[in-house]
Specification:
By secondary structure, the protein is mostly helical. The chain has helices spanning about 1-5, 15-25, 30-40, 65-75, 80-100, 110-115, 120-130, 135-145, 145-150, 155-175, 180-200; strands at about 10-15, 45-50, 60. Helix content is about 65%, strand content about 5%.
Length: about 210
C-alpha cells in the first residue's frame, strides 16, 4: 500500500486513499488495514483534519518526504504508476468539480479550506492530466477551481493552469478530438474572469 500512497502530495484523508487505491487496484488489500499497519510502523503520520464541514472529523495522513521518495521509486519499479497516478488525477478532478458550486454557498469557507489542504494534490492532478493529454479532464478541473484560486489569492497560478488547459484543448482539436462545448465555455469564462480580476486582458483566444 505504501507505494500507492506515494502518489499523494502534502497529505491525504482516508476517503481519498481508499478511492485512489481501489480504483487503481480493485482487488488489492484493504486500505484501512494497510493504512493502520503503516501507522503502527511509523511510516505514515496522522493529524487532525484541516477544517470542519465536508469531511468533518476525518484524519489526514502524510509520509516523511524521504519515505515518500522511496515509495515513489517502488511504485515506478512495480509498473503501477500510470494506474495510480491516473486514479489520483480523476479523484481530485471530481473533487474540484464537486466543490465548485459549494464555493458560492453557506459552506464556502469549509470547502475552501478543504481545497487548500489538498492544494498540492490538485497541482499534481492537473499536471497528470496535462501529461496524459486529457484535454477534457484538465479543462473541466481547471475551470472548476476558478473561485478557489480567486478566494485564496492564487490567481497567477490559476491563470497558468487555465492557459495550459486551453492549449491542450486547442491541441486536441488538431487531432479531431472534441471537448464538450460546456467545458470549453467554462474554461473561457474562467480565463476571462482571471483577466478581469488581475486587469490583465491578454486573454488567449481558442483558434
Amino acid at each position: 500500500l505504501s507505494h500507492k500512497l506515494a502518489v499523494f502530495a502534502g497529505g491525504w484523508d482516508f476517503l481519498a486513499a481508499e478511492a485512489v487505491c481501489r480504483a487503481a487496484a480493485p482487488l488489492a488489500e484493504g486500505t484501512l488495514e494497510g493504512l493502520q499497519a503503516l501507522l503502527d510502523k511509523h511510516l505514515v503520520g496522522r493529524s487532525a483534519g484541516a477544517a470542519p464541514g465536508p469531511g468533518e472529523g476525518e484524519w489526514r495522513f502524510a509520509m516523511l518526504e524521504t519515505i515518500r521518495e522511496y515509495a515513489q521509486e517502488r511504485l515506478g519499479a512495480r509498473g503501477e504508476a500510470p494506474a495510480v497516478q491516473g486514479a489520483h488525477a480523476r479523484y481530485y478532478g471530481a473533487l474540484a468539480q464537486a466543490a465548485a458550486p459549494a464555493l458560492h454557498g453557506p459552506h464556502q469557507i469549509q470547502w475552501l479550506d478543504r481545497l487548500d489542504a489538498d492544494h498540492a494534490n490538485l497541482r499534481v492532478a492537473l499536471a497528470q492530466l496535462r501529461g496524459e493529454r486529457d484535454a477534457e479532464g484538465m479543462a473541466a478541473m481547471a475551470g472548476a477551481l476558478l473561485w478557489f484560486w480567486f478566494a485564496r489569492g492564487y490567481l497567477a497560478e490559476g491563470r497558468r493552469w487555465l492557459e495550459e488547459a486551453l492549449a491542450l484543448v486547442e491541441e486536441a482539436g488538431t487531432r479531431s478530438e472534441t471537448v464538450p462545448p460546456a467545458t470549453r465555455a467554462q474554461l473561457h469564462y474562467a480565463i476571462g474572469q482571471v483577466a478581469a480580476f488581475t486587469a490583465d486582458h491578454r486573454v488567449p483566444i481558442e483558434r
